[in-house]
Write a structure and sequence with these properties.
Length: 447
Protein backbone atom coordinates (compact mmCIF):
# COMPACT_ATOMS: atom_id res chain seq x y z
CA UNK A 1 0.00 0.00 0.00
CA UNK A 2 0.59 3.04 0.47
CA UNK A 3 2.84 5.36 2.16
CA UNK A 4 6.09 4.65 2.33
CA UNK A 5 7.65 8.21 3.08
CA UNK A 6 6.88 11.34 5.10
CA UNK A 7 8.48 14.68 6.02
CA UNK A 8 9.52 15.51 9.57
CA UNK A 9 6.58 17.84 10.19
CA UNK A 10 4.25 14.88 9.71
CA UNK A 11 6.47 12.31 11.45
CA UNK A 12 6.75 14.18 14.78
CA UNK A 13 2.98 14.44 15.47
CA UNK A 14 2.54 10.78 14.48
CA UNK A 15 5.34 9.70 16.79
CA UNK A 16 3.95 11.73 19.68
CA UNK A 17 0.45 10.38 19.15
CA UNK A 18 1.79 6.83 18.89
CA UNK A 19 3.73 7.20 22.12
CA UNK A 20 0.63 8.48 23.88
CA UNK A 21 -1.52 5.65 22.58
CA UNK A 22 1.05 2.97 23.37
CA UNK A 23 -0.02 3.00 26.99
CA UNK A 24 -3.75 3.14 26.35
CA UNK A 25 -4.58 -0.12 28.05
CA UNK A 26 -4.70 -0.96 31.71
CA UNK A 27 -1.44 -2.66 32.71
CA UNK A 28 -3.34 -4.55 35.38
CA UNK A 29 -5.72 -6.05 32.84
CA UNK A 30 -4.90 -9.62 31.74
CA UNK A 31 -2.96 -9.27 28.50
CA UNK A 32 -4.80 -12.20 26.93
CA UNK A 33 -7.95 -10.06 27.04
CA UNK A 34 -6.32 -7.31 24.94
CA UNK A 35 -5.53 -7.33 21.21
CA UNK A 36 -3.08 -4.65 20.05
CA UNK A 37 -3.41 -3.90 16.32
CA UNK A 38 -1.05 -1.66 14.34
CA UNK A 39 -2.37 -0.78 10.88
CA UNK A 40 -2.26 1.85 8.16
CA UNK A 41 -4.67 4.76 8.60
CA UNK A 42 -8.07 4.47 6.89
CA UNK A 43 -7.42 0.82 6.06
CA UNK A 44 -10.26 -1.05 7.75
CA UNK A 45 -14.04 -0.90 7.34
CA UNK A 46 -16.37 0.78 9.80
CA UNK A 47 -17.62 -1.54 12.53
CA UNK A 48 -15.24 -4.38 11.56
CA UNK A 49 -13.33 -4.26 14.83
CA UNK A 50 -16.53 -4.39 16.87
CA UNK A 51 -17.76 -7.32 14.79
CA UNK A 52 -14.48 -9.12 15.38
CA UNK A 53 -14.93 -8.77 19.13
CA UNK A 54 -18.33 -10.45 18.86
CA UNK A 55 -16.88 -13.18 16.59
CA UNK A 56 -14.03 -13.83 19.04
CA UNK A 57 -16.42 -14.10 21.99
CA UNK A 58 -18.58 -16.50 19.97
CA UNK A 59 -15.60 -18.67 19.00
CA UNK A 60 -13.68 -18.72 22.28
CA UNK A 61 -16.13 -17.56 24.94
CA UNK A 62 -13.65 -14.83 25.90
CA UNK A 63 -14.08 -11.07 26.11
CA UNK A 64 -11.56 -9.08 24.13
CA UNK A 65 -10.66 -5.41 24.15
CA UNK A 66 -8.92 -3.88 21.15
CA UNK A 67 -6.18 -1.27 21.25
CA UNK A 68 -5.98 0.05 17.69
CA UNK A 69 -3.14 2.28 16.49
CA UNK A 70 -2.13 3.50 13.04
CA UNK A 71 1.13 4.30 11.25
CA UNK A 72 2.00 6.11 8.03
CA UNK A 73 5.37 4.66 7.20
CA UNK A 74 6.65 1.09 7.30
CA UNK A 75 9.99 1.91 8.86
CA UNK A 76 8.45 3.64 11.89
CA UNK A 77 6.36 0.53 12.56
CA UNK A 78 9.41 -1.72 12.16
CA UNK A 79 11.57 0.40 14.46
CA UNK A 80 9.00 0.25 17.25
CA UNK A 81 9.00 -3.55 17.04
CA UNK A 82 12.66 -4.25 16.33
CA UNK A 83 14.27 -1.71 18.65
CA UNK A 84 11.46 -0.86 21.02
CA UNK A 85 10.21 -4.44 21.40
CA UNK A 86 6.66 -3.05 21.27
CA UNK A 87 4.18 -5.85 22.02
CA UNK A 88 1.81 -5.37 19.08
CA UNK A 89 -0.13 -8.55 18.41
CA UNK A 90 -0.83 -8.03 14.72
CA UNK A 91 0.55 -5.50 12.24
CA UNK A 92 0.18 -4.86 8.52
CA UNK A 93 3.52 -4.18 6.81
CA UNK A 94 4.25 -4.08 3.10
CA UNK A 95 5.94 -6.96 1.33
CA UNK A 96 9.54 -5.75 1.61
CA UNK A 97 9.17 -5.21 5.37
CA UNK A 98 7.64 -8.67 5.72
CA UNK A 99 10.74 -10.01 3.98
CA UNK A 100 13.02 -7.98 6.25
CA UNK A 101 11.16 -9.14 9.38
CA UNK A 102 11.49 -12.75 8.27
CA UNK A 103 15.22 -12.31 7.70
CA UNK A 104 15.62 -10.88 11.20
CA UNK A 105 13.47 -13.50 12.93
CA UNK A 106 10.88 -10.95 14.04
CA UNK A 107 7.73 -12.94 13.19
CA UNK A 108 5.71 -15.71 14.80
CA UNK A 109 3.87 -18.32 12.72
CA UNK A 110 0.12 -17.87 12.34
CA UNK A 111 -1.92 -20.55 14.10
CA UNK A 112 -4.57 -21.90 11.68
CA UNK A 113 -6.16 -24.36 14.09
CA UNK A 114 -9.52 -22.71 14.79
CA UNK A 115 -11.67 -24.97 16.97
CA UNK A 116 -15.10 -23.66 15.93
CA UNK A 117 -14.38 -21.49 12.90
CA UNK A 118 -13.60 -22.39 9.30
CA UNK A 119 -10.11 -21.54 8.12
CA UNK A 120 -10.96 -18.44 6.06
CA UNK A 121 -7.27 -17.93 5.28
CA UNK A 122 -7.75 -20.60 2.62
CA UNK A 123 -9.86 -18.02 0.76
CA UNK A 124 -6.73 -16.13 -0.23
CA UNK A 125 -6.04 -16.41 -3.96
CA UNK A 126 -3.35 -19.02 -4.79
CA UNK A 127 -1.76 -16.37 -7.01
CA UNK A 128 -1.36 -14.06 -4.02
CA UNK A 129 0.04 -16.84 -1.84
CA UNK A 130 2.63 -17.57 -4.53
CA UNK A 131 3.72 -13.95 -4.52
CA UNK A 132 3.98 -13.85 -0.74
CA UNK A 133 6.01 -17.06 -0.76
CA UNK A 134 8.65 -15.31 -2.87
CA UNK A 135 9.57 -13.62 0.41
CA UNK A 136 10.42 -16.96 2.06
CA UNK A 137 13.71 -17.46 3.89
CA UNK A 138 15.63 -20.72 4.38
CA UNK A 139 13.47 -22.92 6.59
CA UNK A 140 10.68 -20.33 6.80
CA UNK A 141 7.90 -20.36 4.21
CA UNK A 142 6.52 -16.83 4.11
CA UNK A 143 2.84 -17.83 3.93
CA UNK A 144 3.16 -19.45 7.38
CA UNK A 145 4.00 -16.03 8.80
CA UNK A 146 2.10 -13.58 6.56
CA UNK A 147 -1.37 -13.39 5.02
CA UNK A 148 -1.88 -10.79 2.33
CA UNK A 149 -4.55 -8.23 3.22
CA UNK A 150 -4.67 -5.82 0.27
CA UNK A 151 -2.71 -5.51 -2.95
CA UNK A 152 -2.51 -3.21 -5.94
CA UNK A 153 -0.40 -1.57 -8.60
CA UNK A 154 1.58 1.64 -9.07
CA UNK A 155 0.75 3.66 -12.15
CA UNK A 156 -0.24 7.02 -13.57
CA UNK A 157 -3.31 9.00 -12.57
CA UNK A 158 -3.90 11.63 -15.25
CA UNK A 159 -6.27 14.44 -16.21
CA UNK A 160 -7.71 13.60 -19.61
CA UNK A 161 -8.32 17.28 -20.39
CA UNK A 162 -4.54 17.80 -20.58
CA UNK A 163 -3.02 14.34 -21.09
CA UNK A 164 -3.99 11.97 -23.89
CA UNK A 165 -4.63 8.29 -23.21
CA UNK A 166 -1.74 7.38 -25.52
CA UNK A 167 0.71 9.67 -23.68
CA UNK A 168 -0.28 8.21 -20.32
CA UNK A 169 0.48 4.68 -21.50
CA UNK A 170 4.21 5.33 -21.17
CA UNK A 171 6.30 6.49 -18.22
CA UNK A 172 7.92 8.91 -20.69
CA UNK A 173 5.05 11.35 -20.09
CA UNK A 174 6.45 12.11 -16.64
CA UNK A 175 9.66 13.37 -18.26
CA UNK A 176 7.95 15.23 -21.13
CA UNK A 177 8.83 18.99 -21.26
CA UNK A 178 5.19 19.83 -21.96
CA UNK A 179 4.31 18.78 -18.39
CA UNK A 180 6.89 20.97 -16.69
CA UNK A 181 5.86 21.63 -13.08
CA UNK A 182 2.67 19.59 -13.63
CA UNK A 183 3.74 16.19 -12.25
CA UNK A 184 3.17 14.82 -8.75
CA UNK A 185 5.30 11.92 -7.54
CA UNK A 186 4.70 9.72 -4.54
CA UNK A 187 7.18 10.56 -1.81
CA UNK A 188 8.36 6.96 -1.90
CA UNK A 189 11.98 6.12 -2.64
CA UNK A 190 11.13 2.56 -3.68
CA UNK A 191 8.46 3.48 -6.22
CA UNK A 192 10.55 6.35 -7.57
CA UNK A 193 13.59 4.09 -7.99
CA UNK A 194 11.53 1.46 -9.80
CA UNK A 195 9.88 3.99 -12.09
CA UNK A 196 13.22 5.56 -13.05
CA UNK A 197 15.01 2.32 -13.91
CA UNK A 198 12.03 1.03 -15.89
CA UNK A 199 11.82 4.21 -17.98
CA UNK A 200 15.60 4.24 -18.47
CA UNK A 201 15.48 0.74 -19.97
CA UNK A 202 12.23 0.97 -21.94
CA UNK A 203 13.89 -0.24 -25.17
CA UNK A 204 15.41 -3.29 -23.50
CA UNK A 205 12.06 -4.14 -21.94
CA UNK A 206 10.33 -3.89 -25.30
CA UNK A 207 12.99 -6.10 -26.88
CA UNK A 208 12.62 -8.65 -24.08
CA UNK A 209 16.29 -8.56 -23.09
CA UNK A 210 15.45 -7.36 -19.56
CA UNK A 211 12.50 -7.89 -17.21
CA UNK A 212 10.75 -5.48 -14.86
CA UNK A 213 11.59 -7.71 -11.90
CA UNK A 214 15.30 -7.71 -12.79
CA UNK A 215 15.40 -3.94 -13.19
CA UNK A 216 13.51 -2.95 -10.06
CA UNK A 217 15.65 -5.25 -7.93
CA UNK A 218 19.02 -4.32 -9.43
CA UNK A 219 21.02 -2.36 -6.85
CA UNK A 220 24.37 -2.47 -8.58
CA UNK A 221 26.36 0.79 -8.65
CA UNK A 222 25.53 1.17 -12.36
CA UNK A 223 21.78 0.73 -11.78
CA UNK A 224 21.75 3.17 -8.87
CA UNK A 225 23.67 5.75 -10.90
CA UNK A 226 21.10 5.47 -13.71
CA UNK A 227 18.20 5.81 -11.28
CA UNK A 228 19.71 8.96 -9.76
CA UNK A 229 20.41 10.46 -13.17
CA UNK A 230 16.86 9.94 -14.40
CA UNK A 231 15.22 11.11 -11.18
CA UNK A 232 17.23 14.32 -11.27
CA UNK A 233 16.25 14.79 -14.92
CA UNK A 234 12.61 14.50 -13.83
CA UNK A 235 12.82 17.31 -11.29
CA UNK A 236 11.87 20.27 -13.57
CA UNK A 237 8.49 18.59 -14.07
CA UNK A 238 7.83 17.94 -10.38
CA UNK A 239 5.12 20.05 -8.78
CA UNK A 240 5.50 18.15 -5.51
CA UNK A 241 6.62 14.94 -3.81
CA UNK A 242 3.39 13.92 -2.17
CA UNK A 243 2.55 11.52 0.62
CA UNK A 244 -1.22 11.83 0.52
CA UNK A 245 -2.24 15.16 -0.98
CA UNK A 246 -1.76 14.12 -4.62
CA UNK A 247 -5.22 12.70 -5.16
CA UNK A 248 -6.84 15.86 -3.83
CA UNK A 249 -4.70 18.10 -6.05
CA UNK A 250 -5.63 15.98 -9.04
CA UNK A 251 -9.35 16.24 -8.30
CA UNK A 252 -8.97 20.03 -8.17
CA UNK A 253 -7.10 20.16 -11.48
CA UNK A 254 -3.92 21.54 -9.88
CA UNK A 255 -1.72 18.92 -11.56
CA UNK A 256 -1.91 16.90 -14.78
CA UNK A 257 -0.10 13.71 -13.80
CA UNK A 258 0.37 11.78 -10.58
CA UNK A 259 2.54 8.71 -10.13
CA UNK A 260 0.38 6.95 -7.52
CA UNK A 261 -1.17 3.73 -6.26
CA UNK A 262 -4.32 2.12 -7.62
CA UNK A 263 -6.41 2.57 -4.47
CA UNK A 264 -5.65 6.30 -4.31
CA UNK A 265 -6.48 6.54 -8.01
CA UNK A 266 -9.93 5.01 -7.48
CA UNK A 267 -10.70 7.51 -4.72
CA UNK A 268 -9.49 10.43 -6.84
CA UNK A 269 -11.44 9.37 -9.95
CA UNK A 270 -14.67 9.04 -7.99
CA UNK A 271 -14.19 12.39 -6.24
CA UNK A 272 -13.19 14.17 -9.45
CA UNK A 273 -16.29 12.93 -11.23
CA UNK A 274 -18.50 14.77 -8.73
CA UNK A 275 -16.86 18.09 -9.66
CA UNK A 276 -16.68 17.48 -13.41
CA UNK A 277 -12.97 16.59 -13.64
CA UNK A 278 -12.18 13.62 -15.92
CA UNK A 279 -9.40 11.50 -14.41
CA UNK A 280 -8.18 8.05 -15.40
CA UNK A 281 -5.50 5.62 -14.26
CA UNK A 282 -3.23 3.31 -16.22
CA UNK A 283 -0.28 1.02 -15.60
CA UNK A 284 2.22 2.05 -18.32
CA UNK A 285 3.12 -0.40 -21.06
CA UNK A 286 6.72 -0.70 -19.88
CA UNK A 287 5.54 -2.24 -16.59
CA UNK A 288 5.43 -1.24 -12.94
CA UNK A 289 5.42 -2.23 -9.31
CA UNK A 290 2.78 -4.58 -7.90
CA UNK A 291 2.65 -4.41 -4.12
CA UNK A 292 1.21 -6.45 -1.25
CA UNK A 293 0.35 -5.51 2.34
CA UNK A 294 -0.05 -8.40 4.76
CA UNK A 295 -1.00 -9.30 8.32
CA UNK A 296 1.80 -10.68 10.50
CA UNK A 297 2.29 -11.49 14.18
CA UNK A 298 5.46 -9.83 15.57
CA UNK A 299 7.92 -11.69 17.75
CA UNK A 300 7.00 -9.71 20.87
CA UNK A 301 3.24 -10.22 20.59
CA UNK A 302 1.56 -11.06 23.89
CA UNK A 303 -1.67 -12.38 22.38
CA UNK A 304 -0.83 -14.44 19.27
CA UNK A 305 -4.01 -16.48 19.75
CA UNK A 306 -6.31 -13.49 19.25
CA UNK A 307 -4.03 -12.23 16.48
CA UNK A 308 -4.48 -15.49 14.55
CA UNK A 309 -8.24 -15.32 14.98
CA UNK A 310 -8.19 -11.71 13.78
CA UNK A 311 -6.25 -12.57 10.63
CA UNK A 312 -8.67 -15.41 9.96
CA UNK A 313 -11.67 -13.11 10.45
CA UNK A 314 -10.26 -10.57 7.99
CA UNK A 315 -10.25 -13.27 5.31
CA UNK A 316 -14.00 -13.91 5.64
CA UNK A 317 -15.62 -12.88 2.34
CA UNK A 318 -18.19 -10.48 3.80
CA UNK A 319 -15.53 -8.75 5.90
CA UNK A 320 -13.16 -8.57 2.93
CA UNK A 321 -15.87 -6.83 0.89
CA UNK A 322 -16.55 -4.29 3.63
CA UNK A 323 -12.87 -3.46 3.91
CA UNK A 324 -12.50 -3.15 0.13
CA UNK A 325 -15.50 -0.88 -0.20
CA UNK A 326 -14.13 1.33 2.56
CA UNK A 327 -10.53 1.79 1.39
CA UNK A 328 -10.72 1.24 -2.38
CA UNK A 329 -7.93 -1.33 -2.49
CA UNK A 330 -8.23 -5.00 -3.43
CA UNK A 331 -8.53 -7.82 -0.93
CA UNK A 332 -6.46 -10.95 -1.43
CA UNK A 333 -9.63 -13.01 -0.88
CA UNK A 334 -10.79 -14.65 -4.12
CA UNK A 335 -14.10 -16.40 -3.48
CA UNK A 336 -17.19 -16.67 -5.71
CA UNK A 337 -18.97 -14.22 -3.38
CA UNK A 338 -16.28 -11.59 -4.00
CA UNK A 339 -16.30 -12.13 -7.74
CA UNK A 340 -20.09 -11.91 -7.92
CA UNK A 341 -20.15 -8.74 -5.83
CA UNK A 342 -17.55 -7.05 -8.03
CA UNK A 343 -19.02 -7.88 -11.44
CA UNK A 344 -20.36 -4.71 -13.09
CA UNK A 345 -22.39 -5.37 -16.23
CA UNK A 346 -22.46 -1.65 -17.10
CA UNK A 347 -18.75 -1.72 -17.99
CA UNK A 348 -17.86 -1.74 -21.67
CA UNK A 349 -14.75 -3.88 -21.26
CA UNK A 350 -13.82 -7.29 -19.90
CA UNK A 351 -10.70 -8.56 -18.17
CA UNK A 352 -8.98 -11.90 -17.80
CA UNK A 353 -8.93 -12.43 -14.04
CA UNK A 354 -8.47 -16.18 -14.10
CA UNK A 355 -5.00 -15.74 -12.57
CA UNK A 356 -6.75 -14.43 -9.43
CA UNK A 357 -10.20 -16.04 -9.26
CA UNK A 358 -9.36 -19.23 -11.16
CA UNK A 359 -11.08 -21.00 -14.09
CA UNK A 360 -14.26 -19.30 -15.29
CA UNK A 361 -12.90 -15.79 -14.75
CA UNK A 362 -11.29 -15.39 -18.17
CA UNK A 363 -13.65 -12.62 -19.26
CA UNK A 364 -15.22 -10.57 -16.51
CA UNK A 365 -16.66 -7.02 -16.44
CA UNK A 366 -14.87 -5.88 -13.28
CA UNK A 367 -13.18 -2.56 -12.54
CA UNK A 368 -9.81 -2.75 -14.30
CA UNK A 369 -8.11 -0.43 -11.79
CA UNK A 370 -9.01 -2.58 -8.79
CA UNK A 371 -8.50 -5.87 -10.61
CA UNK A 372 -5.85 -5.49 -13.34
CA UNK A 373 -6.08 -7.72 -16.40
CA UNK A 374 -3.70 -10.67 -16.66
CA UNK A 375 -1.61 -8.82 -19.28
CA UNK A 376 -1.12 -5.90 -16.90
CA UNK A 377 -0.04 -8.17 -14.04
CA UNK A 378 2.39 -9.99 -16.33
CA UNK A 379 4.28 -6.76 -16.98
CA UNK A 380 4.50 -5.89 -13.27
CA UNK A 381 6.71 -7.22 -10.50
CA UNK A 382 7.22 -6.94 -6.76
CA UNK A 383 10.03 -4.76 -5.40
CA UNK A 384 11.99 -6.80 -2.91
CA UNK A 385 13.81 -5.70 0.25
CA UNK A 386 16.86 -3.56 -0.60
CA UNK A 387 18.79 -5.29 2.18
CA UNK A 388 22.21 -3.76 2.87
CA UNK A 389 21.71 -1.44 -0.11
CA UNK A 390 18.87 0.43 1.59
CA UNK A 391 21.12 3.22 2.89
CA UNK A 392 22.66 3.80 -0.53
CA UNK A 393 19.23 4.05 -2.17
CA UNK A 394 18.05 6.40 0.59
CA UNK A 395 21.16 8.53 0.00
CA UNK A 396 20.18 8.81 -3.67
CA UNK A 397 16.67 9.82 -2.65
CA UNK A 398 18.05 12.40 -0.25
CA UNK A 399 20.27 13.90 -2.96
CA UNK A 400 17.43 13.94 -5.48
CA UNK A 401 15.01 15.66 -3.13
CA UNK A 402 17.54 17.66 -1.14
CA UNK A 403 18.41 20.02 -3.96
CA UNK A 404 14.89 19.96 -5.38
CA UNK A 405 14.04 23.42 -4.15
CA UNK A 406 13.19 24.70 -7.59
CA UNK A 407 13.14 28.32 -8.65
CA UNK A 408 9.76 29.06 -7.01
CA UNK A 409 10.67 27.67 -3.62
CA UNK A 410 14.14 29.25 -3.74
CA UNK A 411 12.58 32.66 -4.44
CA UNK A 412 10.08 32.05 -1.64
CA UNK A 413 12.89 31.32 0.81
CA UNK A 414 14.71 34.50 -0.19
CA UNK A 415 11.48 36.49 0.12
CA UNK A 416 10.81 35.10 3.60
CA UNK A 417 14.39 35.80 4.70
CA UNK A 418 14.17 39.31 3.22
CA UNK A 419 10.85 39.98 4.97
CA UNK A 420 12.21 38.74 8.28
CA UNK A 421 15.32 40.87 7.88
CA UNK A 422 13.21 43.86 6.89
CA UNK A 423 10.96 43.33 9.89
CA UNK A 424 13.96 43.21 12.22
CA UNK A 425 15.37 46.40 10.68
CA UNK A 426 11.97 48.07 10.96
CA UNK A 427 11.68 47.10 14.63
CA UNK A 428 15.15 48.45 15.36
CA UNK A 429 14.31 51.70 13.53
CA UNK A 430 11.06 52.05 15.51
CA UNK A 431 12.97 51.45 18.73
CA UNK A 432 15.53 54.07 17.73
CA UNK A 433 12.76 56.59 16.91
CA UNK A 434 11.04 55.96 20.25
CA UNK A 435 14.26 56.47 22.19
CA UNK A 436 15.05 59.63 20.23
CA UNK A 437 11.55 60.98 20.93
CA UNK A 438 11.90 60.14 24.64
CA UNK A 439 15.20 62.00 24.83
CA UNK A 440 13.62 65.05 23.21
CA UNK A 441 10.77 65.01 25.73
CA UNK A 442 13.23 64.77 28.62
CA UNK A 443 15.20 67.75 27.33
CA UNK A 444 11.97 69.79 26.99
CA UNK A 445 10.99 68.99 30.57
CA UNK A 446 14.39 70.16 31.82
CA UNK A 447 13.86 73.52 30.10
Amino acid sequence: MKLRAMDMKRILPVLLLTLLLAGCYNSGEPRENVLKIYNWADYIGEGVLEDFQAYYKEQTGEELRIVYQTFDINEIMLTKIERGHEDFDVVCPSEYIIERMLKKGLLLPIDTDFARSPNYINNVSPFIRQQIDKLSQPGDVASRYAVCYMWGTAGILYNRAFVSDSDARSWSCLWSPKFRNKVLMKDSYRDAYGTAVIYAHAKELEAGTLTVEDLMNDYSPQAMAVAEEYLKALKPNIAGWEADFGKEMMTKGKACLNMTWSGDAIWAIEEAETVGVDLDYVVPDEGSNIWYDGWVIPKYAKNPKAASYFINFMCRPDIALRNMDFCGYVSSVATPEIMEAKVDTTLDYRSDLSYFFGPGAESLPIDKIQYPDRKVVERCAMIRDFGDKTKEVLDIWSRVKGDNLGVGITILIFVVVALMSGWMIYKKWRRYKRRKLQRRRKRRKKR
